[in-house]
Amino acid sequence: MRGGALLLLPACLAVAGCGDGADTHADAGLNSEMAAKANGTLLDPEKVMAERWQSVFDPAKAVAVANEFGYRAGAYAAKDGAYGVTGTQQLLPDAKSPLTIATNFSAKGNKADRIDTIAFSFDVKQNGKVATKKERDAARIPDRIVRGFLQRFEVGPSDAVRQAVNQGTATEVELHGVTVKVAAEPLPSGKPPVDRRMTVTFTNNSEAQASS
User: Fold this and answer.
1) What Cα–Cα distance (Å) separates residue 57 from each residue in 7, 63, 84, 111, 193?
2) Cβ distance 104 to 88 under 8 Å?
3) pLDDT tens across 133-167, in order?
4) What value does the mean pLDDT take over residues 186-204?
5) Which of 69, 122, 67, 120 shows the shortest CA–CA distance to 99?
6) Average pLDDT value for residue range 64-75
7) What is the pTM of this model?
8) Nearest to 111 by CA among 181, 153, 57
9) Long-range Cβ contact pairs of 76-79 (< 8 A, separation 24 or more)
């Protein structure tokens, strides 16, 4: 497990955009937008949003964006009869912080060109007294990572998901053909309610329906 992330990570977490990533991955929904412009018709907001969400499950784009947040994931490749990738676990903000978050990224699917499920894991542990605003802000790292990842594709997690991530509770919502689920449980060796394990997953229902 690595202690801390790349030097660019704090800036990535603090703002919605980071480097040129927003421009690189903000082409989602372009097909519908270009078609509407060419035909002189109105955009279908639902279709545009569905296309943007589908771009989240593009293996190359998903891995590239995850790596902007320090996960150092390799290529999405054949694994155990399917396809997948797992990043490198990192400890944020650093090992000396009174509140630490061990986090990782993974993706899996049945096709080489399409991810079925993306997951972010967060093990939140309080190691000492949290006294400063900076130390308290560390608790919002999971929210900033999840929100920042999705913003690269011009989509968002919904207020219900953000609330669950920030409060360490469970929820499940459907967003434009995608199931977003937050699972939360106490850490086996931790002290509830602060010490907890959260997993945020994005499941591509549109792909499942198309292959059924």
Assistant:
1) 27, 9, 12, 11, 33
2) yes
3) 988 899 999 999 999 999 999 999 999 999 999 99
4) 88
5) 122
6) 98
7) 0.83
8) 57
9) 76/107, 76/109, 76/112, 76/115, 78/112, 79/108
